[in-house]
Amino acid sequence: MYVITELAQYSLKDYLSLRRDQRKSISLDAVKNISKAIIMVVAGLHAKGFVHLDLKPENLMMFNGRLKLIDVDGCVRAGSDVSIQDSSISFSPCYCAPEWARFLTEESESKIVARPHLDVWSIGMTLCELAILDPILKPTYANFLRNGHSHREAGFLFMDWLGSIKKAPLPKHIEGHDPEFFRMVTENLLVCDFRVRKTLCQCMDDVYFQNDGSSVLGRPSAKDKLERENSGKVGHSPHLPEEVIERKVRNRVEDLSSKAPVHKGTLWKLNTNGGIEDATHWLKRDMWVACNGSLCYFSIKENRRLVLIDASRLVAAKIEACEPSAYEFSFRITATSDEHESDINLVFAAESAEEYQKWTSRLTSAANMDGIMQTMRLGGEMAAELKTFRLTVKNRRMKVVDDEKDQFAAIFKAKLWKVKAEGDRSKEGDWFEREMWISKNGSLVYWSKKEDGKCLLLFQQTCL
After folding, report:
1. Same domain, 273 and 360
2. How far is CA 106 from the centre of its chain?
3. Which residue spans adopt a coiled-coil conformation according to this UniProt entry (predicted)?
4. Which of 38, 144, 293, 310 could link 157 by a cystine bridge, Cβ 3.0 to 4.6 Å?
């Protein structure tokens, strides 16, 4: 059987990425127009009695100026039960609702009923990207990635945090972008209590969408008439800005640790403290960008594959051309690290302009977390990992709130050396000193400089 479908020009994610790279914000009218288009197309899905569960810019595609929703094969009937064991269900952590996060991380929530309000939150997160051109929760996710022991653990920690929020953590820039847009999103879409979250049809009645200048002196405009004529057509939505946008290949990789590299080849690497214009200070290495976003190489000395820059450290790094240099196609990777890590300042060179473009493009995508915030899938494997997470990981590094400080008071306190996450115990530089204590309730606690001197739990008594 052959299935022939339309070919989309690009996704909303591609459009936002282009704008971000060009440092061109989207006009207020365009934000309103695109927001309306997104709400209309998903409201149509809900009207048919389905819930998508994985709404994000990547799943909204442009077809000749019209927005359409894809990946509907993963939709479920509204009102049906979803279990953690259901491997047909996919979701994206940075776009899922707080109640979905609680369903995953709290042991008491074995099932969740698929309701449209789950998609409404995802729509709110998607619309906010129109204002800042980036996922609004990406910095938070990146912080968990830096402090987690693995990419999967970082995702679970992020979900645990998301399930506990009482207010949507919107950047102030969104309110400054357009106060009316900010009000519409916070009052209708990004409402943490799903019981009072509005439906998409109710959102369309918001005054923000009524004042769109589509009619003059109370008479329907030509645009209004056209929309009424086409209101019954599948996939109809207001036209979006027409621009030449390069469509990127959609990366559907889920098991990041076992898949083929995103890009591989050879690079010249400048020795530490080497002279950039001295060709004798450069070494040629076989290198690749792993699917999890890490920059790796093959060490002849150790005869094994090694990680040069872990994905968690490559996040937010700058990749810039550098000159003068002994090699024409050279670039520098720089990143500022936390108190326990050294800063990154490495120089590389490709062998051609084409290879330079490929390497810098892949590394920039890794730094922007394009390959890290992957879609996650439910199923038996995730259920087992979540069980382990609840027993161990969830009990680590929890902030001690003010009304619980008494039970975490010290009965023994001293300084301890601790090896950093995934550090080498044989290397002195991988250790750091911390003031720690055993509390009254039997937990191991420490002071965190990174958290502005806040008291954090390393292990609760139940874990010890």
Report:
1. yes
2. 22
3. none
4. 144
